[in-house]
Amino acid sequence: MGAGHSHVLYRESASPVHRLPPEVKVVAMVVFTIAVVATPREAFWAFGGYALLVAAVAALARVGPRWLLGRALIELPFVLFAIALPFLGSGERITVVGLHLSVDGLYGSWNILAKGTLGVLASLLLAATTTTRDLILGLDRLRCPQLLTQIASFMLRYLDVLVGEARRMRVARISRGDDPRFLWQLRGFAAGIGALFLRAFERGERVYLAMLSRGYSGRMPAVWQGAGAATAGQWLVAATVPALAASIAATALVLG
Amino acid sequence: METLAMHISNGIINGPVAAIFAALALATLTACVLRGRRDLDDRLAPMAGLVAAFIFAVQMLNFPIFTAGVSGHLLGGALAAMLVGPWVGALCVSVVLVVQALVFGDGGVAMLGLNITNMALIGTAAGYLLIALLLRVLPRTSAGLAVTAFVSALMSVVVASQGFILEYWLGGTTDLGSNLAGLAGTMAGAHLFIGIGEGLITATTVVTVAKVRPDLVYALRGLRPAAAPTVAAVGGVR
Questions:
Q1: Closest residue of A to B6, CA-based?
Q2: So where are chain B's domains?
Q3: Which residues cross the membrane (chain B) (predicted)?
Q4: Closest chain A CA to residue B1
Q5: CA nearest B119: which of B92, B145, B137, B141?
Q6: Which uninterrupted H or E stretch holds B65?
Q7: Residues B59-111: pLDDT tens digits?
Q8: Is residue A41 domain-shared with residue A125, that is, in the same domain?
Q9: Which domain holds residue A85?
Q10: What share of chain A is helix, strand, coil (3-state, %, to 5)?
Q11: What is the tally of structural domains in chain A?
C-alpha cells in the first residue's frame, strides 16, 4: 500500500504550483492568511484584491472553481454564526427591509464571511497542490520539532490502518449474520470501538517495529537525503502572492 | 469525505488576542515537546500516532449547535491524556489541529493559537488533572477506570468549550453585550451532551485497552504495583 495515503483533497497535476516545494507553499499560505486577518474589515476593496489573488493561484494550479467552492462548504457552521451576529450584536442599530439589525453585527458578519472564506480557500489550494506526505516533509524542513512531525506522519499512516480495520470488522460482523443498516450499525460500532482501537494499535505497532528494523530513526528518508529542498528562486517565485497580499493589507491599514 | 468546519475560523476573534494566544500556545507546546521527548519510547511512539489518528477520525463526528450557529464536536483530549500522558497527549491533539487547519481549512491558520489553547492545552490539562485525582480516589477496578475516563472526558469538553467564551470575551470581533452569557450557557449545555458521547467513547476505549494491554495506558503506569513487566516486544508481537 505504497500509494494513496489519505490524499483526500490532493488533485493530481503537474502545474507550476504543484511543482513548488512544500515548505515554500506552507509559508506563503500562512503569510497570506495573516495578511488577510490583519486587514481592517471596512476596507472592502482589499478583500476583492485577495479574492483575485486566490483566483489567480487557483487558475495557475488548474483547480476548478466548482471543486474549490464545493469544498469550501465546510465553513457552513461559521456562516450560520455570522448570520446570527446582526441580530445578537449590541450598539447602534439600523433598519433594513423591516429588520432591526446591529451595525456592528453586520460588519462582524462580513468580517467572518470574508476572512473565513479566504482562509478556507487558501488552505484548500495548499491541500489540492500538496500531498500530506510532502506537507510533513515541508514542516520538517521548516525546523518543526521532530517529535511533532513524527506524530503527524504516524497519524496519517495510521488513519488508513484505522479505516482498514474498521472495514474488516464490519465485514466480520456481516459474515456472522449481523445486518448493519443506517443507525442500527451504530450500536455494533460503539460496542466494538475499544476492540477497533486495540486491533489498529497492534497492527500499527507491527508496522512501526518493521520500520525500526529497516533503519527508521524518526525521520523519513526523503528528509535526511535532503534532495528537493527549495531553492532561492523558488522562494522568490512563491513570495509574490504573500508579498502582494501584505502590500494590500498595508495599504488598507494606512488608508483606513 | 464531507465534513463541516468546527474550529474557530479566521475573523471571529481579533488579531491581537489571536497573537497573544498563539504566543501562549507556542510557549506551552515547547514545554510539551521538551517533556514529551522523555516520555516517548518505542511503545509510546506508535501509540501517539494512533491516538492522533483516532482523534482525527473522531473529530469528524460533529454536532451543530443551531441556536448559536456554532458547532461542537468530540475533542479527544482526555483520551490522549489517558493513553499517552499529558505532554505527548497535548502534542497529539495539536498535530491534529495543525493538519486540519493546513489541509482541510478547518479552523483558520491565524486562529491556530486559540484552537490549540482550547482543545489541546485546556482540554488535555483539565482531563489529566481529573484523571490523576480520580484514579487515586476511586477503587482500582475497571469500573473505577471507566468512571474516571467518563468524568474526565466529560469535564474536559465542557471546560474547553468555555475557553472559546473567554477568548470571545477578550477579543470577539463583534460585541455581543449581554448575549455573551447566553452563548456561554448554550456552549456549556451543548458540550455537556457532547461530553457524554465523548465520555462513553473514552471509557470503552480505555477500559478495553487496559484489560488487554495495561502496559499501554500511560495513566496507570505509576499506580500499578509492577505487574509482571511485558517482554520488550521487538519483532514478534502477538
A1: A77
A2: 15-220
A3: 12-34, 46-66, 78-104, 116-138, 144-170
A4: A8
A5: B92
A6: strand B62-65
A7: 765 555 444 445 556 778 888 888 888 889 999 999 988 888 887 766 677 78
A8: yes
A9: 16-138+229-255
A10: 75, 5, 25
A11: 2
Contact A89 B177 (CB under 8 A): yes
Enumerate the residues of chain B whose CB falls inside 8 A of the CB of residue A75.
5, 9, 105
DSSP letter, residue B224: S
Q: Do A197 and B66 touch (CB under 8 A)?
A: no
CATH number of B15-220: 1.10.1760.20
Say if residues B213 and B206 touch (Cβ distance below 8 Å).
no
The overall average pLDDT reported for chain B is 78
Nearest to A115 by CA among B168, B183, B26, B15: B15
Q: Are residues A26 and A133 in the same domain?
A: yes
User: Does residue A84 sit in the same domain as residue A153?
Assistant: no
Is the pLDDT score of A44 beyond 80?
A: yes
Is the pLDDT score of B224 beyond 80? Answer: no
Q: Are both A29 and A109 inside the same structural domain?
A: yes
pTM for this predicted structure: 0.82
pLDDT, residue A1, reads: 36
Q: Do B103 and A127 touch (CB under 8 A)?
A: yes
- Beta-carbon separation of A194 and B207 below 8 A: yes
Residues 202-231 of B with CB under 8 A from A: 204-209, 212-213, 216
